[in-house]
Design goal:
The complex is a heterotetramer of chains A (352), B (321), C (510) and D (337). Helix content of chain B is 70%, strand content 1%. A two-stranded antiparallel ribbon of chain B has the order 1-2. Chain B is an all-alpha fold. The longest helix of chain C has 16 residues. Chain D is α/β, with parallel strands linked by helices and 337 residues long. In chain D, α2 runs parallel beside α3. The longest helix of chain D is centred in the middle third of the chain and has 17 residues. The N and C termini of chain D lie far apart (58 Å). The N terminus of chain D is likely disordered. Classes of the chains: A mainly alpha (352), B mainly alpha (321), C alpha/beta (510), D alpha/beta (337). At the A-B interface, α5, α6, α12, α14 and α15 of A face α3, α4, α10 and α13 of B. The structure holds adenosine-5'-triphosphate (2 copies) and magnesium ion (MG) (2 copies). One magnesium ion (MG) binds next to α1 of chain C. One magnesium ion binds next to loops of chain C.
């Protein structure tokens, strides 16, 4: 039993290794030194406090975005709408911070902003959920459409109600900020903030809901087999909507992390942040488990921070994209790994 | 403006912007009808757009003149098909989760093309402009027909007709030929097809390759009729819209075409809206989101449930029960 | 003499199991050769080898004396071998004709010549009395017709040797008799048939020879004319079989389920159940007999809340439960063994343990204040697994990995353990072997003995006749008669099921 | 300051002697055919003219996401022994420049297109409304239909300067002309650019001025299509000389260029000579040739060019102050009557 589970977890690990090897080959072909590149990335991300801190800054929304996608997947739903939910959550948190009296203590302010993001992102997830439950509209289309609606609507709201020079909202008051002098000093001036605690709590919450509560049992049952769930007396439609709400809420909190931690304001966005799409990859890399999502996010963030180092070596940063894509491919095609392993076993071990 | 004047602006423009979506959505139909989900349409369009730009420039360079964009379309279809084989290998041979593999295609396409653009054009993030585009024309004779002439035969690119004709061709192929029957059979019930001696993997490879060809074509058409060069942001979301059009159109080529035209129409309507006096007072955000809201309303209101091909997304493993 | 088919010493392994172990099968031209064996004996596997879907590890195959290597169904087809699979291989959304011609379509300039195809189908259909509608979509036709489509598929390809894998499991007695006729017609036209079944009666009726397989090994081939059914049965199982029969005295109690004038629409908005009335009393098994598709599924769905009733009333212990949500109905005391165990009965990706609390997970002691208590769930699962002899490596094994029989036992354990006032058992033994059937029948009878009501819906007439206290015959959404099993023959029941009233006028002839 | 990788393994040490300058692009990247590219061209010219070494003495870092701005700036603070002057290109980087500058008081920064008030930051802004006014004069005089189009990318304060300056220029020379204004909501939606251009030309406009980045590609495309069919339509390009974008149909009437390159080169020179202009806001307008018409303007007749020069003088000597915002435009219109 245990060994079986272990080998299941080996698949992403091997995929990551294969992806890095493939990336190395591309670098070699293009005339770069992969050892130096990976060495620099490692050195930067793990040994240089500033970049470690910045990596964490990237990790935070990524974990939450990955959780959002993974949660939906567990409930049998495909949420491509994280981008939109994230924008709405971002705006909801920043708007709340700006509208509440700045003098409120942090213990009220920050939870209030995060709750606003949960509600905002949740509603943005709720709508496709409702449309699917009520009208059987395919969630892939609605979530794509909702992304664009979120992009334009949040921009318009910022322009109309929260505009500050520089095409953004004003800064949130310090009482709503997740940043701290302690982390700033610890990481030599990076933007690392307490959102990492929020993200980790998010991971625990997802694990707890799905695996420890009867509601989670229901959500998973509906995800795997709606017919049997209906037979067993579960309200399939309500669960579908709830799953989408929770998924959207995670995405919304991811947005809040940008607003309360990374930037302290919201910009008028010309395009999507990309965090939602990365979240899909992270969720799949992490086999839709909380812990896996955390590991996947670390890998992604490390590679993204590493881009800065690669640029300094003159390696086009798009190579990182390619490596990430290859890793995803290898994870997806995990059968290739099993297949190879079985081949090797057959050759090596002979008949049982 | 009179209604006719508005339509004369809106309809040709809707058809033009719908064209890449139609082509790509048709590709999606092929792939999903064969049982392979293709989230990677965006990536296939990116590849096509890249090839469309690079090869038009190359062909112009070697003196092929006005034929350049047309030949580039051909190359884009071929390379698109070749690139999509990655998705095919992963999801058919190696039983990958097809959604994941599609997402990987999207990442990979963007990474590789931008990387190559930089390699090819001295560090530049985008290609130069192409000189020879596929232009919008007035179809001789036909554009003089009253009413429909100005709407459907003026200010239109031949690629749009090609896309529309292709939609009918794909429909014909899928529903009237033995190839189509076989392709659909492996998407509905691969085991049944297998027992009748149909090579499930081969049909699925073909389905995916055709989606690559059409997706590549879609991306290239976008470049040679609209964008005129290629950069990282040239294709941003069009592939996802094509995916939506395919689902909206219920996996039917003609439905997909209708949905893509609907998207195009909604967008051009929202653009012309700003010039129509009584719509002018509406804040522009409403017009910006109108196409997406309309789509959702249309789906919820009268399109309703659509059933995907039954075996779509499920790897076929011989002999598994 | 040359055999039309000779399979010599076939061995086929699956990971961890030898499905066929040195099996030899010899079929003579123009005969119906039965292949008999328990569930999992290896019958389908052997035929899949013959049909080119599996490659054997060992052994040789001869067709009409020629040694052949059948590496794909195409080659099997070229050799004149056709197979009607146990699970129909039909594409729902295609028409009958499309299903038949798929893979060898008549074309004209690349276009399928659908006119020619339909004509060919019609001709074949008439020639063998198969009576199918070439235009109909497969999802709209009856199971019996679907099977005839499967037969046509093989004939269309010019098959000389037809393999039927458990063709009667899903048919009504009438349809079975039709099928037997068709098979006899086919052999009289010179074709040879291999018939897989575990029904001895059928073998006696049509087969010439019978090869018995047990646990992957060939036990022997006998002339059917010389063999007693009991002999075949013990060859198959390796021991003697007792059939369960309802022999205890019948003392019905109060009405548990009362259905009054119930009308239910099917997915196409047609009344599948048509002002139907029925009562089930405590201490009785009420069997519902009927040809598949006469409203049985919709009736059950309406009772259990899975489908809305259009009109009428459903009362449980005198209390109205019409239009209630499934959960309320379950809690009111109805348990349900669903006819499709994969679709409704189990979440295949959950462990078998978690499946054991599918309807009760939210109640104490399995969950308190919304938090699951895994120790309690595990205890319950272990108890049920033991009590009902569910063979599974562990409580944590995914339900998917269990065999069909064991999956069914798990569902029955779960449902009976809830001690329901009314147990609805829909096709509880479909596709199971005699051992498993015996077990399940005993459980149903126990329910009755404990004073509970059982509503048994089955297409197996034997099952209905052996277990029921009363038999309600359903036809076109109505109960057209209620009879006592001791006072009716199988033939009479068959007539009723076809809509013919026993006494008096023939109202519903067709 | 104490943060980051100080990269001292590379040559380091002689920081005082060798002047090093670098820039961080916004997400548009160094080849956006717009201000990032222009800035990099300026920096390259400076580097070559002064014999600096690419990638060590002068370099750029590209930002892939908005969240890269800060780490990229910080990297340059320490990379290769630290750069003396670091440019942040684009208003999107305002906040990042402000923060990093505050944390690194010994490094000099410059921001293009926005203002950061700090001792060690030089702000470079352009008077886009002045250049736009001049191309507005061109359009106002040359239109045959009295309909002119303006296509914007995102509706931002910056792009509003283009719009209002342009409209003011048009109205100054041709009060009867009507300016159709439309924003695409994106700088990268060529299809929308084309659709808007189609709509504006379709409504009779014969000249369109775009300030919409790659969205403008669609505007050019539409114009080229129409020109090919014999319509006499024009596009006015933006940011740099967009002559090439209009070829081969030659639809570029002129472009409103913004000499980010000159500004970057000039500031780099000054800084190398010890004058960092710290805390100053350097505004480049017509006077400094920071904005203006591109060299390609062959299709503009002399009388129009003369008028343009007249207005240029008036703007330079302050007789005319082209409006930046909607409110200023309203006032400007009123003053015309
Ligand atoms: N594809 C497969 N992979 C692994 N094991 C298999 C496979 N197919 C069959 N088996 C196993 O091989 C054995 C023989 O199966 P087979 O289907 O031939 O039995 P059968 O005699 O047809 O039974 P039934 O009466 O239930 O149809 C069973 O134990 C079955 O579980
Ligand atoms: N495709 C497959 N791959 C792996 N194992 C399989 C496969 N099919 C069946 N099995 C295994 O083979 C065994 C028997 O399966 P099968 O469905 O034939 O059982 P069955 O004959 O219906 O059993 P029962 O006697 O309980 O009715 C089970 O343990 C099942 O898990
Ligand atoms: Mg079985
Ligand atoms: Mg079988």
């Amino acid at each position: 039993m245990n060994t079986k589970r272990l080998s299941g977890a080996m698949v992403p690990v091997i995929s990551v290794l294969l992806g890095l090897i493939a990336g190395a080959i591309i670098m070699l072909i293009s005339g770069y030194n992969p050892l130096q590149a990976y060495g620099d990335i490692f050195q930067m991300v793990f040994l240089t406090p500033y970049y470690s801190g910045e990596t964490v800054v990237t990790i935070i929304p990524l974990i939450l975005s990955g959780l959002s996608v993974a949660f939906a997947f567990r409930a049998g739903l495909f949420n491509i709408g994280v981008e939109g939910q994230l924008l709405v959550g971002w705006l909801a948190s920043v708007a709340t911070a700006l509208l509440l009296p700045a003098g409120l203590p942090k213990v009220i302010m920050i939870p209030a902003c995060i709750i606003a993001a949960i509600i905002g992102g949740g509603i943005w997830g709720f709508i496709p959920g409702l449309l699917k439950a009520r009208f059987k509209v395919h969630e892939v289309i609605t979530t794509i459409m909702m992304n664009y609606i979120a992009l334009h609507t949040t921009n318009a709201i910022i322009r109309k109600y929260f505009y500050a020079e520089g095409e953004r909202t004003p800064n949130i008051p310090d009482s709503a900020s997740l940043s701290s002098q302690f982390l700033y000093n610890l990481t030599a001036g990076s933007r690392m903030h307490w959102g990492i605690i929020v993200a980790l709590i998010g991971a625990v919450v997802m694990w707890f809901i799905l695996w420890r509560t009867s509601k989670g049992y229901e959500l998973r049952a509906v995800g795997f087999n709606p017919d049997a769930s209906l037979y067993a007396g579960m309200n399939v439609n309500r669960n579908m909507v709830l799953s989408f709400f929770i998924s959207g809420a995670f995405a919304g909190v991811a947005g809040a992390m940008l607003g309360l931690g990374t930037y302290h304001y919201m910009t008028i966005n010309q395009d999507f942040t990309g965090i939602g799409f990365d979240g899909i990859a992270v969720a799949l890399l992490g086999l839709n488990s909380s812990f896996g999502v955390i590991l996947g996010s670390i890998l992604f963030a490390a590679l993204e921070t590493g881009e800065i180092g690669m640029q300094s070596l003159g390696i086009p940063n798009d190579l990182v994209q390619v490596i990430i894509a290859l890793i995803i491919f290898f994870v997806a095609s995990n059968y290739i790994i099993r297949w190879t392993r079985d081949r090797l076993k057959k050759k090596g071990g002979g008949a049982k | 403006m009179t209604i006719m004047e508005i339509l004369e602006i809106v309809i040709p423009s809707a058809i033009l912007s719908a064209t890449p979506l139609i082509l790509t959505a048709l590709g999606g139909v092929f792939s999903e009808r064969s049982g392979v989900v293709n989230i990677g349409l965006e990536g296939l369009m990116i590849i096509g757009a890249f090839i469309g730009a690079v090869f038009t420039i190359l062909f112009e360079h070697i003196g092929l003149g006005a034929a350049s964009p047309w030949l580039a379309l051909l190359v884009a279809a071929i390379i698109g098909a070749a690139f999509s084989l990655l998705h095919a290998v992963a999801s058919i041979t190696f039983r990958a989760d097809q959604v994941v593999s599609g997402v990987a295609i999207n990442f990979l396409a963007l990474g590789i093309t931008v990387f190559l653009v930089k390699k090819l054009f001295a560090g530049s993030g985008q290609t130069p402009y192409i000189d020879h585009r596929i232009n919008k024309i007035d179809v001789p004779l036909l554009h003089d027909i009253p009413i429909i002439g100005p709407l459907f035969f003026s200010n239109i690119a031949y690629t749009s007709y090609i896309a529309i004709i292709l939609a009918f061709v794909v429909w014909y192929v899928l529903f009237k030929t033995s190839f189509g029957l076989r392709l659909r059979s492996v998407g509905e019930h691969p085991a049944a097809a297998d027992t009748l001696g149909i090579n499930v993997s081969r049909m699925r490879y073909l389905g995916v390759a055709l989606s690559g060809a059409l997706g590549g074509l879609g991306g290239a058409v976008y470049v040679v009729t609209i964008a005129t060069n290629f950069g990282a942001t040239t294709i941003s979301g069009e592939g996802y819209l094509a995916l939506a059009a395919m689902i909206f159109g219920k996996w039917n080529p003609l439905g997909a075409m209708g949905a893509a035209l609907f998207f195009g129409f909604a967008q051009s309507l929202s653009i012309i809206g700003e010039s129509i006096p009584f719509l002018k007072s509406i804040p522009d955000v409403y017009l910006l989101i109108a196409p997406y809201v309309l789509t959702i309303l249309a789906l919820a209101g009268f399109v309703g449930r659509a059933d995907a091909p039954k075996a779509s997304g499920v790897p076929y493993i011989k002999g598994q029960r | 003499m040359t055999y039309v088919i000779e399979m010599r010493n076939i061995r086929k392994e699956f990971p961890g199991i030898v499905a066929n172990d040195d099996i030899t099968l010899q079929v003579q031209p123009g005969e119906i050769h039965a292949l008999l064996g328990e569930n999992g004996a290896g019958k389908s596997t052997l035929m899949n080898v013959l049909f080119g879907l599996y490659q054997p590890e060992q052994g040789e195959i001869y067709v009409k004396g020629q040694k052949v290597k059948i590496t794909s169904p195409n080659i099997a087809g070229d050799l004149g071998i056709g197979m009607v699979h146990q699970h129909f291989m039909l594409i729902d959304t295609f028409t009958v004709t499309e299903n038949i011609i798929l893979g060898s379509e008549p074309t004209k300039a690349g276009k399928i010549d659908i006119k020619v195809a339909e004509e060919q189908v019609r001709k074949l259909s008439n020639q063998y009395g198969l009576n199918v509608d070439p235009h109909a979509k497969v999802r709209d036709i009856s199971v019996g017709m679907q099977q005839r489509v499967e037969i046509l598929k093989t004939l269309y390809r010019g098959a000389e040797i037809l393999i039927f894998d458990e063709p009667t499991a899903v048919l009504t007695p009438h349809e079975i008799r039709e099928l037997m006729k068709i098979m006899k017609l086919l052999v009289s036209e010179g074709k040879s048939i291999i018939l897989i079944t575990h029904k001895l009666k059928e073998i006696k009726e049509v087969a010439d020879k019978c090869t018995v397989i047990r646990r992957g090994k060939g036990i022997g081939t006998v002339d059917v004319a010389d063999a007693e059914p009991s002999q075949l049965a013990s060859m198959m199982v390796g021991r003697d079989i007792k059939f369960q029969v309802n022999q205890e005295p019948y003392h019905p109690g109060a009405n548990v389920l009362e259905i009054k004038d119930l009308t239910v629409l099917d997915s196409r908005k047609v009344a599948a159940v048509n002002s139907l009335s029925l009562t089930v009393k405590s201490g009785e098994i009420l069997g519902v007999a009927g040809v598949d598709g006469n409203g049985q599924s919709e009736l059950i769905e309406a009772i259990t809340g899975l489908r809305k009733a259009a009109s009428g009333q459903i009362l449980l212990n005198g209390k109205e439960i019409t239009q209630h949500r499934p959960r309320k109905i379950t809690e009111a005391g109805i348990a349900h063994i669903p006819e499709d165990r994969h679709k409704h009965g189990l979440v295949l990706d959950f462990s078998i343990g978690h499946n054991m609390v599918l309807e009760t997970y939210y109640q104490r002691p399995y969950s308190k204040a919304g938090i699951l208590h895994f120790d309690k769930i595990r205890k319950q699962a272990e108890k049920l697994i033991k009590e009902f002899d569910v063979r599974t490596p562990s409580v944590d094994t995914p339900a998917r990995a269990l065999s069909g029989g064991n999956q069914q036992k798990a569902i029955i354990a779960r449902e009976i353990d809830r001690d329901p006032d009314l147990l609805i058992a829909a096709q509880p033994t479909r596709g199971l072997d005699v051992g498993a059937i015996e077990f399940i029948h005993r459980r149903l009878l126990e329910q009755r003995k404990n004073g509970k009501a059982v509503l048994l819906i089955s297409l197996e007439l034997d099952e209905i006749l052996n277990l029921s206290d009363r038999i309600a015959v359903i036809y076109e959404g109505k109960i057209i008669d209620i009879v006592e099993p001791s006072k009716v023959t199988e033939d009479e029941l068959g007539l009723l099921m076809a809509g013919h009233h026993l006494k008096g006028a023939h109202e519903n002839e067709h | 300051s104490s943060n980051g990788d100080d990269g001292s393994k590379s040559s380091g040490g002689d920081k005082k002697k060798g002047f090093k300058v670098a820039m961080v692009t916004d997400t548009g990247g160094v080849n956006d055919k717009s201000f990032n590219q222009s800035a990099w061209e300026g920096l390259q010219k400076f580097g070559k003219d002064n014999g600096l070494k690419l990638n060590t003495d002068y370099k750029y870092l590209q930002s892939n996401q908005a969240s890269d701005y800060e780490p990229n700036l910080n990297t340059l603070v320490h990379n290769n022994g630290g750069y003396n002057l670091i440019f942040g290109i684009g208003y999107l980087m305002e906040d990042a420049v402000k923060k990093v500058a505050a944390a690194n008081p010994n490094t000099h920064f410059a921001i293009v297109d926005d203002v950061v008030n700090a001792k060690n930051v030089t702000s470079i802004t352009f008077k886009e409304e002045q250049g736009s006014f001049l191309v507005g004069v061109v359009a106002g005089m040359m239109t045959k239909t009295n309909k002119i189009g303006f296509v914007g990318g995102e509706k931002s304060a910056l792009i509003k300067k283009f719009e209002n300056g342009f409209k003011a220029g048009v109205k100054s020379v041709n009060p009867k002309a009507d300016v159709l204004v439309q924003y695409a909501g994106s700088f990268s939606a060529a299809d929308k650019g084309q659709a808007i251009a189609n709509s504006q030309y379709g409504q009779g406009a014969d000249i369109i001025y775009h300030a919409a980045g790659a969205t403008g590609n669609g505007v050019f495309n539409e114009a080229q299509n129409r020109k090919k069919k014999g319509d006499n339509v024009w596009v006015i390009g933006v940011d740099r000389d967009q002559y090439d974008a209009g070829m081969p149909e030659d639809v570029t009437l002129t472009s409103m260029v913004k000499r980010v390159d000159n500004a970057v080169e000039q500031l780099s020179k000054d800084a190398m000579n010890g004058n960092y202009h710290g805390g100053e806001n350097l505004q480049y307008g017509l006077k400094d040739n920071g904005v203006g018409l591109s060299e390609h303007h062959d299709h503009i007749p002399d009388n129009v060019m003369k008028k343009v020069d007249d207005y240029k003088k008036k703007i330079i000597n302050g007789d005319i102050k082209p409006p930046q915002t909607d409110a200023e435009y309203k006032d400007f219109l009123a003053s015309l009557k």
